[in-house]
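For reference, the entry.
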Amino acid sequence: MVESIEQRLAAVDENGLVEFVREHLASLDATLMRRLLRHPFLGTEAIQLLLEDRKVAGSYEVRRELAGHPRTPDARAMQLVATLYWRDLARLGTETRVRPTVRRAAERRLADRLPGLEVGEKVAIARVCSPGLVSRIGQDPNPRVIQALLENPRLTEGVLLQLVSRDSARPEVLAMVARDRRWGVRYRIRVPICRNPNTPVATALMQLPALRKPDLRAVADDRRLAKAVRQRANLLLGRLSRAGME
C-alpha cells in the first residue's frame, strides 16, 4: 500500500521533517499546512520553507497559524500580524505560547483599529482582550463596551480606578460599576465613585454608608458634589441632624 502524505506527516520524526517539507511542499494544501504547523518537531528551517511558498500568502488560516507560531521569525510574524482580522488579533494578544513581541504587535494593531470597529465588535473584544488593551478600551464612552469590560478576567483594579476617577466618566458607567458584584464592593472603587461629580445622586447615596470617616469628610467638604450627597455625608459624620436636612 502506498503511504499517503498525511500518513507520512504523522510518522515523520524531528530529523526527517525538513526533508519532508522540501519533498512535499508543492503538494501541501491549506489543511495539510495547518496540520504541519501543529507538528511537535516543526522548527524554524521548515517554517522558512513554508514562508517562501506562494500558497501561504493566499491562505488566511495558514497566515494566522504562522503569525502565532513560536518559531516563526519575528520580522515575518509582524508582517503576518498586519494581515489578520480583529478577532484573531485579540486572540493572539492573550495566548501565552505566542512570543511577547508578537503579542504586543497584535495589541498595537488592534488598538489602531478600535476607532473604526462597530460597537458589537468592541463589546466582543472588551470581554476577552489582553492586559495591554484593557486600559485603552476602558476609555470607550459606550456603556455596553464598559459592561463587557467588567466581565474581562484581565481587568485590574488600577485600570478601573482610572476609569471611575475621570472627569469625563459617564453617569451610567459610574452607576454600572457601583452595581457590579465583583467591583462595586471594593473600597478603592467606592471612594472615587462617591467623589465623582458625574455619579448619579442615588448611586452615591447608596455607597456613602460604606465609607470611612476621612473619606466621608472629603465628600462632605467637596463643593463639586450635589448638595444631597454632601448633606448625607455630614449626617453620617454626625455633623448634621435629620431635622437640619429637612
